[in-house]
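#onboarding

Welcome to the new folks! Below is a worked example of what a typical request in this channel looks like: someone posts a single protein sequence, and someone else replies with the predicted structure as tokens. Don't worry about understanding the tokens yet, we'll cover that in week two.

Example request:
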Amino acid sequence: MIEKKLFNEEKPNTTEEKNKVKKKFKHLVVVGHPDQKSFCYNGIFKTIVRQLKKNNEVYKIIDVYDDKLHRDRTELIKEYKKLITWSTHIYFVSPVWWFRLVPKMETFFDEVLTPGFAYKFVPLFGHYAYPKPFLSDKKVRTYITHGAPMLPVVTLYFNSVKLRLVMGVYTFVFGWKPSRWFKTKQFWSVPFVDAKKRAKYLRVVKEDIRKDLGL
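Example response:
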């Protein structure tokens, strides 16, 4: 659901306080996993939320499975678009199923990041055009988990999951810059690694959030 009890927003009294609030980041965390005991949800997602809460950041949460996102839920999709517009920072968290993100996260991309809202095609010549992003001001981080080890995915399958996500989705709506690639992080063999390795993955997430907050 669109979490509200975890939305920490100060109510300023003085002009100085109001100016401080205006400068604050607005974080949107989008999580896609049907199992709240999973490493995606219970590990990565909760680590992000804890760091934001610990530092008294303003944030909201979209849980596409708890919300039962479907293309027919037009009012929910409108609300999602408002949250995208509202945010300064967006975090996507999802496992990889069949070499793509989970179905409801893909639905999120299809139904929320739509032409006219997130991008438009600008004609070049003939039948050629390029996508002009409307959300290029957003700071985006993505954490995707694999059951597979790294080597076959990045060699035999040409790192197709990350390549398609960054080049086929993010460059359309958020624009291209090297950080789109480097801030899309993949955690490997998650069901098979030990607790020590998972803790290392979560330290990466924690340090990323601290960097985003300038800590």
